[in-house]
Amino acid sequence: MHISAKADYAARALVELARDSSSPLTCEAIASSQQIPFRFLKSVVGELRRAGLVRSQRGCEGGYWLTRPAAEITLLDVVRAVDGEVFTLRGEPLAGLAYPAPAAGLPGIWRSIEAGAAEILRRVTIAALLAGTPAPRTAEAGEDDPSGKDSLAGAA
């Protein structure tokens, strides 16, 4: 499994923007605070803007803001904004993947893994990351913790 640098940087930028929504932040400020290469971040923030997750304002008072509350932006939104798909196989979506027997069952496994990852990403918001309280695991994902109170913090 691979988490792209774009998805990682995009999530970190959004958490940084959510930290103080009273004024816009420049890419330079986000890059410095999060130790992200500026040029790479600039293109990632452009993708976030095109996806409608951030808005921008030019000028000396300019910068970037979240377009909606951090509690309404999920990691799934972030991944889809910058990567398109949660998982791909050799760059192709898993939806139409089919193999001849005896490997015919393998595409279903890949799609199940993708669906599970998408569900976890859907439950974690930028606000939860900022607060340090990601969503609890599902019973299946948290089998090591019978109480079901385990958090995703250890899974990252």
TrEMBL record:
Q: Which domain of life is it from?
A: Bacteria
Extract the InterPro entries matched here: TR_Rrf2-type_CS (IPR030489), Tscrpt_reg_Rrf2 (IPR000944), WH-like_DNA-bd_sf (IPR036388), WH_DNA-bd_sf (IPR036390)
Which Pfam families does the entry link to? Answer: Rrf2
Residues of the region (Disordered) are 135-156
Keyword annotations for this protein? DNA-binding
Task: List the PANTHER family.
Answer: HTH-TYPE TRANSCRIPTIONAL REGULATOR ISCR (PTHR33221:SF5), WINGED HELIX-TURN-HELIX TRANSCRIPTIONAL REGULATOR, RRF2 FAMILY (PTHR33221)
Q: Which NCBIfam families match?
A: rrf2_super
* Full protein name: Rrf2 family transcriptional regulator
Q: Which organism is it from?
A: Actinacidiphila acididurans
